[in-house]
Amino acid sequence: MTQSSTAGALYLSPEMESALRSAIAPAQNILCVSHVSPDGDAIGSLLGMGWILRHLGKQPTLALADKPAADFDYIPGFREIVGTSGVADDYDLIICLDASSPDRMGAVYRPAAHSQIPLLVIDHHITNTNFGSLNWVEPGCAAVCQMLVYLADALGAPLSADLCVALLTGLITDTLCLRTSNTNAHVLQAAMRLTEGGAQIQEIVARTLQSRTYAGLRLWGSVLAHATVQKRVIWATISLAQRKQVGAQEGDGEGLAGLLASAKEADIAATFSERVQSGARVVECSFRAKPGFDVSGVALAFGGGGHPPAAGCTLTGPLDAISAQVVAALQEAHQMQASGQVQPVGVAAHG
Ligand SMILES: [Mn+2]
Hints:
Layout: H1 4-11, H2 14-24, E1 29-33, H3 40-55, E2 59-63, E3 93-97, H4 111-114, E4 119-123, E5 134-137, H5 144-155, H6 161-174, H7 185-196, H8 201-207, H9 214-224, E6 228-230, E7 233-238, H10 240-246, H11 256-260, E8 268-277, E9 280-289, H12 296-301, E10 305-306, E11 310-316, H13 319-338, H14 347-350
Parallel strand pairs: 1-2, 1-3, 3-4, 4-5, 7-8
Antiparallel strand pairs: 6-7, 8-9, 9-11, 10-11
Helix pairs in contact: 1-5, 3-5, 3-6, 5-6, 6-7, 9-10
The structure holds manganese (II) ion.
Manganese (II) ion is lined by residues 41, 98, 124, 143-144, 174.
């Protein structure tokens, strides 16, 4: 079960493979999009899809509603990513990567102009709403970038160095460097092939997971001082005032939920971060769970989504009221899961 062809067959059925070929082969001008607040898997899969399509002689437009962090500018093709203003009305095909619902595409997808165009959804979120005209959703894969290794094989696109750097970025960032509970032999096999193709794990880690700003570290310091643990759930709130105090910009202090989840006293971790989104105050909720626990259900119940070990949602309202309400839901979910009343999603299926 360690041959790459076996892994491809496991996550990409012959039926899906031929459906993907039929969708992509006749298309020439293709719009590729990923989600708002793009992370490494969003940016890596977007740029990787671009390289796959170029290898097939097609013209991709790569678009993101939010500007990607400059940390990722080492990935070949990074500067070709366009914003909302770079998106036209007319394409042969739209490919949406790593987004679990249509709103996650943000303003780069305009229903009035685009709803008649075939929409191919490629995603690994168990909470995906299957909003495309063709949906390849594989929660068994640790990253969309892993899925694109199998897609490249299926379409006969070579794993060039450009493509490998893009895809290994998403695989390394989504698995926190091959450490998450969904990191299995197939993930390692994919990482090995991408490494053989010219990408380097240590360089990607140094530029992404191990790269923080001083303001971000100071923000962690002030926030951690007020972290609370109760009923095996640990959480912290991050207000706009706290950000301002340490001079933190958008993106500074990311990843705190993962750090909180290392607490021995907790199985579930959450951060509640106050943000301004389109002029309105919102609270970005980020959840992490230890193996055997599942936070995707709570995220979905609050209109968000994600994976069993990592999920989130965005809510409107006062920071304290929202954190109190969501923490109560997480504690309730924890109690149910700990007592075995609810089988955590994904553990049996993908373990
Ligand atoms: Mn992802």
